[in-house]
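Summary: Need help interpreting a holo structure output

Steps to reproduce:
1. Submit the protein chain below together with the SMILES for NAP.
2. Request a joint structure prediction with the ligand placed.
3. Inspect the structure token block that comes back.

Expected: a single structure record containing both the chain and the bound molecule.
Actual: see attached output.

Input attached:
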Amino acid sequence: MAAIALVTGASGGLGQALVRELRREGWTVALAGRSLERLQTAFGVEALCIEADVSTPEGARLAVESCQREAGLPTALAQCAGTTLLSPLHRTTAEMYRACVAANLDSAFFMLSAFVDALREARQPGAAVLVSSVVARIGVANHEAIAAAKAGVEGLTRSAAATYAPSRIRVNAVAPGIMDTPAVARIIGNEAGRAGAAKQYPLPGIGDPADLARLMAWLLSDKAGWITGQVWAMDGGFSSVRPLVK
Ligand SMILES: NC(=O)c1ccc[n+]([C@@H]2O[C@H](COP(=O)([O-])OP(=O)(O)OC[C@H]3O[C@@H](n4cnc5c(N)ncnc54)[C@H](OP(=O)(O)O)[C@@H]3O)[C@@H](O)[C@H]2O)c1
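--- attached output ---
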């Protein structure tokens, strides 16, 4: 029987790429999102779709329980639900900040918690991959709220990896630079915006969610069986390389 993976934010650009990659690798994949319609539009009515808002503890538990009931215990979690927010601190309202933290950090915290509880109850090993961002690693102007939320995701990754290593539950994260998904359509949706964004990176260009999906699928697989507590950057060198100034 195929192993079961639960993907949140499955209707999104990265989520869709990852679902395709995991299916190619032979996983049975359960898809979670806030809208059944969006999930079914992307994957068809036959797909195992779970309508749940994973930014709440109840929604996160519902996602894991529905997966267990419909398909079986998920031994892999890919937490793709999240947003981006381009807004300087002085223009970020309390509502914008709270929505950003809910979508990015609360969802990671509650999903990981529900996933770990189910694995521990079943005494099974497993692997989770969370999604951070380049802006958590290096100061990028006008990203204070999302940088704070994603830095929280990275701290969560390392602490949970330490707590659950004895239970053979691995927790890693990925930290992408800008990727071609609906989340950033407003920034790269026109030629000038796209070219401007691409120029920011030492390896010029825009990230492909399919590339990140391959890295995430690998981290969830047994091939990465001795890797935990790591944050893997995929950002064209943005967070670690200073481009030569000519
Ligand atoms: N694209 C980039 O440039 C970029 C860069 C760095 C990091 N990231 C991260 O990559 C991950 C995937 O994003 P993406 O680029 O694939 O964006 P996307 O296409 O907008 O997909 C994100 C998905 O997250 C779900 N979501 C949004 N807000 C949510 C909320 N409040 N609660 C629960 N779910 C919510 C949405 O699904 P439903 O509405 O169907 O629930 C949406 O389909 C996110 O964590 C994002 O922060 C993206």
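--- end attachment ---

Reviewer comment: The chain has a mean pLDDT of 97. The helical segments are 13-24, 36-43, 57-70, 94-122, 144-164, 185-188, 191-199, 209-220.
Status: needs-info
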